[in-house]
Write a structure and sequence with these properties.
The protein is of the alpha/beta class. It is 37% helix and 14% strand. The longest helix has 23 residues. The N and C termini lie close together (9 Å).
Amino acid sequence: MQIGLAHDYLTQRGGAERVALEMTRIFPKSPLTTSVYSNENTFADFRDVPIRTTWLQKVKAVRQDPRLGLPLMTSAWSHLKPLSGDAVVVSSTGFAHGVPVEAGTRKVVYCHNPPRWIYQPDDYLNSRGARLAMKALRPRLLDWDQKAAASADTYLANSTGVAQRILEAYGITAPVVHPPVVVDTAGPQEAVAGVQPGFWLAIARGRGYKNVQAVADAVARLKGHALVVAGSASSSVSGKNVTALGLVSEAQLRWLYSNARGLVTVSFEDFGLTPIEANAFGTPVAVLRAGGFLDSTQEGSSGMFIESATADAVEATLASFPEFSTQAVLANAARFSPEGFAQRLRETVTSIL
């Protein structure tokens, strides 16, 4: 089969980018189309993939932060030369599903979430000014997004919650195919200077819905507890016993997962790969009872649920956090294998050809 790939943008090291990278391994040598690509800010393995970009690649500010090019993204994707081949497999959070394809070329969309800036703007846009601007842009973006969704032959959802959002947004029933755990647990580890094992770990990008400050406030109340925050959200988090690391290397991330007492997150995630990545290292989790975490976490076996995204709820859960069986935690991560994901994706592509 001749397969093409597409992903919104390659400018960060997030869960959606891990999934897109895994797709390049499932369909090796397939070209990947994206709006903008910053090889120094995303996973290094993308350098081995033939990548095609839109005209927005010439705009440095958009390569640094794709949100700045949001009003232009629809034009950039719409004016691409149509992709050819048997099928195009798309990893999308809002734009790549609009990639044009030639007549006879099938399109499979793996949806991480319908675009938050259209359907959940308060979660995605931090400032009042940005929300007002989006209000003016929304009718045009909504029209484009609905047409883009309708152009797909098949939709897949990464969680049951996202499947429901796809149904509400597009009227499409999407089977659930959970994303895989693809972290290299056997890879080299690099200890983080000044950090002692036994800390709580939070990993997040700078988005309002990540709610990292609530975790920091909770840990500050717990005597003898410490929190380590990794990711771009680190710059906006403060509190007693909080170590903000910013972006870390893959070797440092493996060390953090291996040496944490538990991963903590109260973000409203579409799926959220970090809990099962932590589980893959035998580390249990404390996660919000919402969204994709309902799919990924087995309560009492791989972690505990936090009842609300507040410091009080986080404190209550961490204060009573039990010991977990490492084998049970590892078994939960094994449910999300790369092999299982690859099989489901190949079966989907084969079934529409």
